[in-house]
Amino acid sequence: MTKLTFIAHDGTRFDVEAENGSTVMESAIRNSVPGIEAECGGACACATCHVYVDEEWTDIVGEPEAMEEDMLDFAYDVRPTSRLSCQIRVRDELDGLVVSVPERQG
Questions:
Q1: What's the number of CA atoms in the CB half-sphere (13 Å) around residue 50?
Q2: Ordered alpha helix ranges (H), 1-106
Q3: Are strands 2-7 and 97-100 parallel, antiparallel or unpaired?
Q4: Where is the 2Fe-2S ferredoxin-type domain positioned along the sequence (predicted)?
Q5: Which of 37, 60, 85, 93 could pair covalently with 49 via S-S, beta carbons 3.0-4.6 A apart?
Q6: H helices within 7-101, ranges in order?
Q7: CA–CA gap between residue 34 and residue 9 (Å, rounded)
Q8: Rounded-to-integer distance, Cα 12 and Cα 35, Å
């Protein structure tokens, strides 16, 4: 299992174990992480699973693809490290990944 840390807007940490092959969004939903709404269920058709990737992880996570970048236009308070958590596949290299949840979605 890969360990992920979600930091809620109020600073509360949620340390979860995620299955490789799943997405960061699916792990958040399974573990009731507040602030991840995932209205489209992971189809990259909304921006309600927006997160900020911790800067030390941005190179490992990688850049968003074109479709994800288009959807990020609809996200609240987009930053250089913004990603849609439905587009980040959990894998061994992401063990210890830290992402922060924005104040609100959309």
A1: 23
A2: 24-30, 58-61, 66-72
A3: parallel
A4: 2-105
A5: 85
A6: 24-30, 58-61, 66-72
A7: 9
A8: 12
Q: Which tokens belong to 24?
A: 């960061």
Residue 92: count of CB within 10 angstroms of its CB: 7
DSSP 80: T
User: What distance in Å separates the CA atoms of residue 40 and residue 8, rounded to the nearest whole number?
Assistant: 21
pLDDT digits (tens, 9 = 90+) for 18-73: 999 999 999 999 999 999 999 999 999 999 999 999 999 999 999 999 999 999 99
Q: Which two tokens stand for residue 85?
A: 């958590």
C-alpha 41/C-alpha 36 separation (Å) is 11
Query: Tokens 């479709």 sit at which residue?
Result: 67
